[in-house]
Prior knowledge:
With 140 residues, the chain is α/β, with parallel strands linked by helices. The chain has three helices and eight strands, in the order ββββαβββααβ. The chain has a single domain, classed as Alpha-Beta Complex (Nucleoside Triphosphate Pyrophosphohydrolase).
Amino acid sequence: MKRVDVVSALIYDEEENILMVNVKGYWELPGGAVEKGEHLQQAVIREVKEETGYAVKVNQLHSIREAFFQDKKHHTLMMTFFAKITGGQMDILDPDHDIEEVKWVSNQTFQNLNPKLYSMLKLNQQTQAFYEFEGNRTVG
């Protein structure tokens, strides 16, 4: 199995809305694969900029999740960080053209758009950083 490290950013605005991106019809947090020679913080900053147009400062770790994607033969570590916007404006700069939309959503809307991710990130609870093995999964 190929090892793939993926980062994402949990970004709140002043009203406690969460920044989400629509990737080919699937709503998720901004983020993506860590490139060769890139550290995790650099990857978060780059991915958020590409997918949302915003510059961010990476704060503390939110969670580390792990899964095996048998169909792609990937062993994936998914690391989510809290981040804060420091500049830029909402704009899709994605070189892969995978991002269809970027928007701020309420906690309830996040739960409606992607209930599985909402649950996996434990956004319904106040929690400290956590690790979880999510087993064998399929994409989505």
